Amino acid sequence: MREGWRWFGPDAGVGLDDVRQAGATDIVSALHHVPIGDVWTEAEVAKRKNLIEDMPAGRTPLRWSVVESIPIPDRVKREGKAAKDDIDAWIASMEAVARCDISTICYNFMPVVDWTRTQIDYETATGSTAMRFDHRAFAAFELFVLQREGIENDYSDKDKREAAAKREELGDDGLAEVARIVTSALPGSTSDALSLPAFRERLKAYAGIDAARLRQHLIEFLEAVTPAAESLGVKLTLHPDDPPRPLLGLPRVASTEADYAALFDAVPSMANGMCFCTGSLGVRADNNLMAILKRFGPRIHFAHLRATKREEDGRSFHEAAHLDGDVDMIEVIRALVAEDRMRAPANSIVFRPDHGQRMLTDLTRTSAPGYPAVGRLRGLAELRGVIRTIERLT
């Protein structure tokens, strides 16, 4: 398995020497400065690749091996194959990536919002801080700030009482901060940062789109792009929904084993693969990660190894230390190592320590929320130790 690290570019606060010192060898990055829907040019991809790989004399080499992500425009999610121009533009971006010898592309199909949290600096018992999704805070945002149509039917009376109590606890400033975090797009997001009115309008655009229709639009997208991926030697990896359940009255279609099975049955090409994200999938207690891994192992072209901890209400969670959440990380890694051993070196699974708690010098250093230097270094070191032990003993 190859050790990856998500890098947001030269202005992200975590540099390439930080990555080298953490011990990673493979960079996971994207052209975050290119607007969603615009075509990535070969020149722009090559510029980023050269920045990563043209190392100073004497430095450890790095390789840009995974693109995360080429955003899928919102219109594709709403219209499927009818959004042909947007799909063609996405294929053109994939072609530019392939011409620069990058063969793995991660993407997601979450409508309106990408990965969602309500708190970016939840203080843990150690004094480190973590990302958190508080269901009560999210309900308070929906009920008292967003006030979207039909929301009354989505929350029970108990939920509404708890949301009202949370609103009082947060106060106006705290609730405004939750709204900012939800609507402004978190790091690496493939959805637009929106004002509150624009957010409401984007939600309305999904009226009448249920899970079956959204899934069909994803299948139509895959039917269009997968033949091109096959011809280019590109592996597509669909990231799970985060959190893996309907949100904001919107359906989500990459949350469970059954969701992925439906997509692989519809588009059986091995270029149609998954990003095995233990944190996202692990938020659902009914997701059996080992069963998913065993069933779809050959389709796992990329892995996010992180741990989430479900809280008492079963719907809230926070980012735990990489070996300390609800995920049985040891068994997951054991299975991934076994899968990886069956592959040629060129097809070895790239994994990265996804997210991380802010700790030590992270607490006074600028970095993208969820992507601190020291917290991820700790996570990668723990994961590396497990991997090397399993490799030695099996």
From TrEMBL:
Keywords: Iron, Lyase, Manganese
Pfam families the record matches: UxuA (PF03786)
EC number: 4.2.1.8
Gene3D superfamilies, per the entry: Divalent-metal-dependent TIM barrel enzymes
Catalytic class of the enzyme: lyase
The UniProt record lists the keyword Disulfide bond: no
Molecular functions (GO terms): ferrous iron binding; manganese ion binding; mannonate dehydratase activity
Pathway: Carbohydrate metabolism; pentose and glucuronate interconversion
SUPFAM superfamilies from the UniProt entry: Xylose isomerase-like
Record bears the keyword Ion transport: no
Any Gene Ontology biological process: D-glucuronate catabolic process
Cofactor or coenzyme needed: Fe(2+); Mn(2+)
Source organism superkingdom: Bacteria
Signal peptide: none
Catalytic activity: D-mannonate = 2-dehydro-3-deoxy-D-gluconate + H2O
Family: Belongs to the mannonate dehydratase family.
Known role: Catalyzes the dehydration of D-mannonate.
Official protein name in the record: Mannonate dehydratase
